[in-house]
Specification:
Layout (H helix, E strand, L loop, with lengths): L1 H4 L23 H43 L5
Length: about 80
């Protein structure tokens, strides 16, 4: 146990100094905004397309059920 304590930093002089970062160099900038906007637009287009496809499938199912009920009234 004493050997382990020998390696622990006990004084403030041995601590790692704070990293100074320039806030202008870590921002995404115009390129990051454009990429985020394009991804958001693509997601929106995909969601709209998915809703249209699901709605189309649901309407086809309803129409097929009505046609089956009209052609075979004793099954319903």
């Amino acid at each position: 146990m004493h050997q382990l304590l020998r390696f622990l930093p006990l004084e403030e002089d041995t601590l790692i100094p704070a990293i100074e970062v320039d806030p202008n160099s870590v921002t995404p900038g115009v390129v990051g905004f454009v990429v985020t906007f394009v991804v958001a637009g693509a997601v929106l287009v995909l969601i709209i397309d998915m809703v249209r496809r699901v709605r189309r499938v649901r309407y086809r199912e309803e129409i097929n059920a009505k046609l089956d009920a009209e052609t075979n009234p004793e099954a319903g």
